[in-house]
């Protein structure tokens, strides 16, 4: 579906642009909150991104990974605009258990009637570097594959695999083995 929408958008179909914007808005907005706390700035940046894409649509490359393409473009736009406006801030925590991206996780936690594991996982994730938090967010909350993550973060595919492996290893070292299995269960439930 995304590929056909992208092709129609590139061909000048404004309805396809609207469908792309509507389909990806929530994911783009939630991802943007990691870079800025200003909702107006975020909304403006997303809108400007779509306007810029519309103006340059004839020159855009074909992609089978529309979501990661949009996330990468928005990430660069947010950082560039934030620096230009002198309002750049380090990305916030990428792993927020209260975020709207995670309805399955919220349901699992409610079903298990255990806030301990989720708060423990959240506290451990906050100990990770911002880059590690971002890769966990992209992999398990946005359900992106390694290639998409590499594209968004500007890393090689092998670097993504290595970073994800080191991140999960670090979580495992902090948690007791039984608790680590619970953390993996929570993370895998997101994908």
UniProtKB/TrEMBL annotation:
Keyword set, alphabetical order: Sigma factor, Transcription, Transcription regulation
Coiled coil: none
GO BP, sorted A to Z: DNA-templated transcription initiation
Stretches assigned to the RNA polymerase sigma-70 region domain: 128-173
Record has Magnesium as a keyword: no
GO molecular function: sigma factor activity
Gene3D superfamilies: 1.10.1740.10, Winged helix-like DNA-binding domain superfamily/Winged helix DNA-binding domain
One Pfam family this sequence matches: Sigma70_r4
Similarity section: Belongs to the sigma-70 factor family. ECF subfamily.
Protein name: Sigma-70 family RNA polymerase sigma factor
